[in-house]
Amino acid sequence: MVAEEMRGAPTPFEELMFIDRIYKTKGALHETLKERGFEYYAEIELPRVDCFMYLPATFPKNREEAAKFDFASLTNQRVAIGVCVGGTYLTNCWDEKVRLGVQGILKINHNCSIADKAATQIFLAVDDFFRDFAELRKHNVSLDVHICGYSLGGLFAQVTTVLLQDWASTTRNRVTCRTFESPGIPEMYHEISQNYTTDPEQFWKQRITNFKSLPNPLNTVFQDLGRVFHLKNTDHINCSTSWVIKCVAGTAKRLAFWTGLMKGFGIGSDKESFNSMTEFQQKCTIGAAIALELGMDLCEVVRNHDVALMLGCFDQKSGTLLSSCCIEMEQWPVYENFEDSAVRLLQSVSQGLMVMDPRNAGLHTLFLFGGKRGFVERKLRRIPGYLPMPIKAKAEQPATTMVEA
To answer: Which among 55, 89, 116, 165 has the fewest CB atoms less than 10 Å away?
Structure first.
């Protein structure tokens, strides 16, 4: 076996496929890994999520195979290995998934021991592998450790990448990470991340890349490290019967409100609306705030968290990321607490009283402003914190780095 035959680093499309297969069967996972030139190596036990380590298919998997392997052909080379961290297994009920998912992630902000434990388990697995194959150090072979994670697994992947940098520098290995629909990481780890270099922003942009779908309750909890890309797949946003009804009802409701106000009944109506809104404010969730800001139902918003939708942003034959579906972000919205969500919820409600505003569902948006997809697009651009990278900055950043990061 010679170095040229060794499989290189996994692509974002491949990592997303591996994550998708976690939720199917082990047979499907193993088959997909082999098709892509990799092989399953070991399971890593993590809290709440599934995790496994994989290697190039031609690399030895045990000491018996190592005895027959020509490590000298890898002298001064780098070997790419991968760690894949899935998301939590939750109920199929969307509102329950939102409640459990967000609450579980927020708990980590107050008790980071879960994330620390996950990072420790991944570190032990990777370090044991590096030490078990002493031939790697004998022939000056370094590891490129590629960690990918989805949802809560994305949080674990980012935290692990941060905490493994000391190990990487002392062993001359490299640890990088890609996440999909990550909730971000708690502030504590952002503070730790500042200790590794004099230019933390560039340092982490070279090591961590985050891919996100439309803002939803599970990808707007904390700030992310590294680069953030919005993968836009709006195939599921269709002009359904319920959407038409919502547009008609929206116009009728706003006209009724303003007609009543003009007739002198506005005070009573306004007081009643205020009281009901205050009650709703007390019960609101992050999901409700995002759903209202995007003008979508909660089920639609949470569906954006699906792996399948993100896979649709890649060419299914070549695995290339479709440029029309990808926007690099300078900033991503964060709903750090329920109080913040309540304020934004009320702001959306007040804006919703404007009859012809193109951000409000009504007869005008149904016929004049590009249908439901155009409507969601306009609402998206108005969400505080949603800030695409300026065109000039994009030009300075080669497009190929998007998939190589």
So the answer is: 89
